[in-house]
Design goal:
- By secondary structure, this protein is α+β, with helices and mostly antiparallel strands.
- The chain has two domains: 2-155 and 330-335, Gcn5-related N-acetyltransferase (GNAT) (Aminopeptidase, 3-Layer(aba) Sandwich), CATH 3.40.630.30; 160-321, 3-Layer(aba) Sandwich (Aminopeptidase).
- It contains twelve helices and 14 strands.
- The protein has helices at 14-22, 33-41, 43-46, 99-111, 134-146, 167-172, 176-190, 207-218, 222-227, 230-246, 289-303, 317-321; strands spanning 2-6, 53-61, 64-74, 77-80, 93-94, 123-130, 149-157, 160-162, 196-200, 249-256, 259-269, 272-280, 308-310, 328-335.
- Strands 1, 2, 3, 4, 5, 6, 7 and 14 form an eight-stranded mixed β-sheet that branches. The chain has a six-stranded mixed β-sheet with strand order 8-13-12-11-10-9.
- A hairpin with a 2-residue loop joins strand 10 (249-256) and strand 11.
- The two termini are 25 Å apart.
């Protein structure tokens, strides 16, 4: 493999990048070219300083792209692009077959005095790697060969629901009490006497105003209001437009009498629904809008043969009430020997 350092994400064609993500060890929207490009422009919505330096490394074999290490340098360490707060799944981009050779070659390249990037890194600090990613075992094995230290720990749970393709079959598979509660709340909303409807945003011309509405719903939560700085708002809008144009955005709202009661910002990608964020108007709490809209979304996902409903990071109680089964993302630290 021939390794190369790139000055910009646009230096790698988006089509080639995304094709490699789709065939890679972790096929997640947060690894796609359009998502990481918007993330880097704002350094994660202001999470990282403007001084952070891109360290985008690719590998080719016989002139074909076979690996991408989307990295950046900050605080003396090399991090995965997308770290840490707003990208739920991160990884290297390579096929399962190529990954072991890619990891070995990447570590050699990063450690070489002839080809290494122009900054002195002390460690790899990689967060949000799926617990089943072969990158973990490859990093551990290659670290041991070099006498480098390797440490991995669970970072956060990522509950997920496998979908049977039928809403009634899904309901039959969860706790009886929760099954009745979901049905009761959906029925109560429908029989409330209000005009209750839900919809998926399909018109990009309306996307900015719909996102403004969604961010207003989010900001009713004090913790989310503090999170939504001006730069974070711009980051979210840019990533939403990128996802819409690439065909994997699912922005949905529940309305009551024409007013937005709840919204979910999801990704509809790789035959899965990825639940990214939500917001609700507390004036409508009597309708249980969060539960009701989630019920409609699960019904839609089953009817449209999505294989999985991924709640992503966080252990909020409602995720388990709807049948979420725990998986985890990991935090890995590799510290190299001082030269």
């Amino acid at each position: 493999m021939n390794f190369r350092l790139h000055p910009s994400l646009d230096d790698i064609p988006a089509g080639e990048w995304n094709a490699l993500v789709a065939a890679g060890v972790t096929n997640a929207p947060f690894l796609r070219h359009e998502y990481l490009s918007t993330w880097w422009q704002t350094r994660g919505g202001g999470e990282w300083p403007a001084e952070a330096q891109l360290c985008l490394v690719s590998a080719e074999r016989d002139g074909q792209l076979v690996g991408i290490a989307p990295l950046f340098f900050s605080d003396g360490k090399l991090w995965l692009l997308g770290s840490v707060e707003i990208s739920d799944y991160l990884d290297l981009v390579a096929s399962p077959e190529d990954l072991p050779h890619f990891v070995a070659g990447l570590l050699d390249w990063l450690d070489s005095s002839d080809s290494a990037p122009p900054f002195a890194w002390s460690a790899l600090e990689w967060v949000n790697l799926p617990e089943n990613s072969p990158t973990l075992s490859a990093l551990e094995a290659e670290s041991a060969k070099r006498g480098w230290s390797y440490a991995a720990e669970v970072y956060e749970p990522t509950p997920s629901i496998p979908l049977p393709g039928d809403f009634e079959a899904y309901l039959a598979g969860i706790d009886k009490k929760q099954r009745h509660e979901i049905r009761r709340k959906m029925r109560r909303a429908e029989e409330s006497g209000r005009q209750v409807r839900w919809y998926i945003v399909e018109d990009e011309a309306q996307l900015d105003s719909e996102m403004d509405s969604f961010l207003t719903l989010m900001a009713q939560d004090p913790e989310k209001a503090a999170f939504l700085t001006e730069v974070m708002r711009s980051q979210m809008k840019a990533s939403v437009h990128a996802a819409f144009q690439a065909g994997w955005l699912q922005l949905v709202f529940l309305e009551a009498d024409g007013e937005k009661a709840c919204g979910y910002l999801n990704f509809d990608y790789a035959n899965k629904i990825w639940v990214y964020n939500s917001g609700l108007d507390r004036r409508f709490m009597d309708l249980s809008p969060g539960w009701v809209l989630l019920g409609y979304l699960l019904q839609w996902a089953n009817e449209n043969q999505r294989a999985e409903f991924d709640f992503m990071r966080g252990d909020e109680d409602y995720k388990y009430k709807f049948g979420g089964l725990d998986r985890h993302v990991m935090q890995v630290t590799v510290t190299r020997k001082p030269s």
